[in-house]
Amino acid sequence: MAVHAHPDDESSKGAATSAKYVAEGVSVRVVSCTGGERGDILNERLKGDPHILSDITRVRRDEMARAAQILGVSHTWLGFVDSGLPEGDPLPPLPEGCFALAPLEASTEALVRVIREFRPHVLTTYDENGGYPHPDHIQTHVVTMSAWRAAGDPTAYPHAGEPWQPLKLYYNGWTLERTTALHEAMLAAGLESPWADWLANMRRRPRRVLGTHISAAEHFAQRDQALLAHATQVDPDGHWFAVPLELQQRVWPTEEFELARSIVPATMPEDDLFAGIRELDDPDEVCRRAPARDADGEPVVAYVGEPPLPPDEPGLDARSTAPQDADADERDEMREGEGHTE
Ligand SMILES: [Zn+2]
């Protein structure tokens, strides 16, 4: 089960991995915490389209349905409203009633209900900085961690279904090494690289320790098609599609994840989200059993992810949601590289 903030995030983060596991016969569920109601129209060709402007919520629902079909996943809306990406200095307050301001018990219960109904062995979400500091991405992390703690607890949300403890929890990852390799391969092929600015910025962010590498090159085309299905959110002439597929498949054929929590023993590096689970005689039985808990009430884990390493070049505060423009180019470095703003 992949928990995401907005429709389109499932197609830009770990999408080829989702498609790979679907092809292997795994049931994959994507959960979108919000409806993406506050996303800007980023496709120049669709800006000002009266049909889209009159009902962006409906349009994004249709886009999401198409993307889910392309990836072969099932999909659930958690039902919260997009918080939008606040801009300005100082930042404006978040809009009333949005996901980031929803009571944690309400959003946790909603996700616990979906977990107990779908019964996943593995959860994926974002790291504590949200991958980039959109309030909905950070809140998606907070809610998923809260649901990880509660879903297997028979005393928590007893009206939200039978307890079910997922066995592994991952964060979606994006590595400096991957971006560097793609950048250098583009230059070597005599092509213009879209990564030059990103690389400088990534070197100023804390470096996550990503030990999970999923071979998914055969599904990169599917990933791109799913992303293009979010036509209002994606510029088909933008950086996402500037790197030839063949080059990506040759230079970096994997998607990276960070294992944050595992009930089952794990050894890094690994190449399978289900490593350690496949070895169990009856994983479902382990998920149904209430896990042992530590003094803080957290499920006892056999593996916990490593803290991030300091950045190569210190500069950006990964936890801040305030705009950061270290190189004074009037662009927010922490937000560069995310589909919503570029
Ligand atoms: Zn998003």
From TrEMBL:
Keyword Nucleus recorded: no
This enzyme's EC code(s): 3.5.1.115
EC class: hydrolase
Region Disordered, annotated ranges: 290-342
Matching PANTHER family: N-ACETYLGLUCOSAMINYL-PHOSPHATIDYLINOSITOL DE-N-ACETYLASE, N-ACETYLGLUCOSAMINYL-PHOSPHATIDYLINOSITOL DE-N-ACETYLASE-RELATED
Function: A mycothiol (MSH, N-acetylcysteinyl-glucosaminyl-inositol) S-conjugate amidase, it recycles conjugated MSH to the N-acetyl cysteine conjugate (AcCys S-conjugate, a mercapturic acid) and the MSH precursor. Involved in MSH-dependent detoxification of a number of alkylating agents and antibiotics.
Record-stated family: Belongs to the MshB deacetylase family. Mca subfamily.
Name by which UniProt lists this protein: Mycothiol S-conjugate amidase
Organism in which the protein naturally occurs: Ornithinimicrobium avium
